[in-house]
Amino acid sequence: GNSVTQMEGPVTLSEEAFLTINCTYTATGYPSLFWYVQYPGEGLQLLLKATKADDKGSNKGFEATYRKETTSFHLEKGSVQVSDSAVYFCALAGGSYIPTFGRGTSLIVHP
Amino acid sequence: GAGVSQSPSNKVTEKGKDVELRCDPISGHTALYWYRQRLGQGLEFLIYFQGNSAPDKSGLPSDRFSAERTGESVSTLTIQRTQQEDSAVYLCASSSLQGRSYGYTFGSGTRLTVV
User: Fold this and answer.
1) Is the peptide bond before B8 cis (omega within 30 degrees of 0)?
2) Contact B91, B34 (CB under 8 A)
3) Distance (Å) of CA B65 to CA A75, B52, B80
4) Which of A40, A86, B77, B85 is the most buried (most CB within 10 A)?
């Protein structure tokens, strides 16, 4: 079946540091890939997506590239802010139409 | 509506009681999903509705859990004889048929505490 593996957190960074959160997946066919963000006490919000190999999703300074050869979709940001502190979920949607989510990675950014 | 609405936002119930959680999806979204999120954990799929098709119930953890949806409208998730391990945030999401292309919109969740 489909699965998503994310790096364990928490990831703790200072403001303006470079961020990478690793995500790898297992799926048959050609799934769509997503990153969602969850701020404290809120539901998940779509951050970015990519629907085919080599696509790059980007939003609010975050980027992720769909790498089929390495089955990865790593999230990056060049300069994080305190307001980026949240839990980030990598997800995929394959042929079953039911999206599969990773366990989430907590990001803590200190001033 | 403008977003996915869930109610109540918080529910405290005594062990053994039944609870009903409600999800109001985005108008026009044919697909609706329920997930459970235990403290510090990822999202656990519970059930999926698509239009008038039979729901995919493969994620329901026990027969104490059930869900209904009439057409493409409101859904209710019912947990009977609640147990302490049912304590979690229950998240609802909806999407168009092209959810794989455009993504899924989540509600803010219902935090269930069983005491």
Assistant:
1) yes
2) yes
3) 35, 20, 7
4) B77
Q: Quick: pLDDT tens for A52-82.
A: 999 999 999 999 999 999 999 999 999 999 9
A43, A26 Cβ separation under 8 angstroms: no
Show which residues on chain A lie within 8 Å of chain B, measured between beta carbons: 31-32, 34, 36, 41-46, 49, 51, 89, 93-94, 97-104
Between chains, do B42 and A46 touch, taking CB under 8 Å as contact? no
Tokens of B31: 């697909």
Q: Please write the tens of the pLDDT for every residue from B39-97.
A: 888 899 999 999 888 999 999 999 999 999 988 899 999 999 999 999 999 999 999 87
Question: Are B4 and A43 inside 8 Å of each other by CB?
Answer: yes
Hey, are the CB atoms on A51 and B100 less than 8 Å from each other?
Answer: yes
Q: What is the DSSP string of B34-72?
A: EEEE-TT--EEEEEEEETTSPPB-TT--STTEEEEE-TT
What DSSP element (H or E) covers A73?
Answer: none
CA dist B97 and A97 (Å) reads 9
**Cα separation of A52 and A111, whole Å?**
37
Could you tell me how many helices (H) and strands (E) chain B has, helices first? 1, 10
**Which residue in A37, A44, A46, A101 has the most chain B C-beta atoms within 10 A of its own C-beta, making it the best mutation to test that interface?**
A44
Write the burial class of residue A63 (CB in 10 Å: 0-12 exposed, 13-18 middle, 19+ buried): middle
Q: For residue B1, what pLDDT is reported?
A: 53
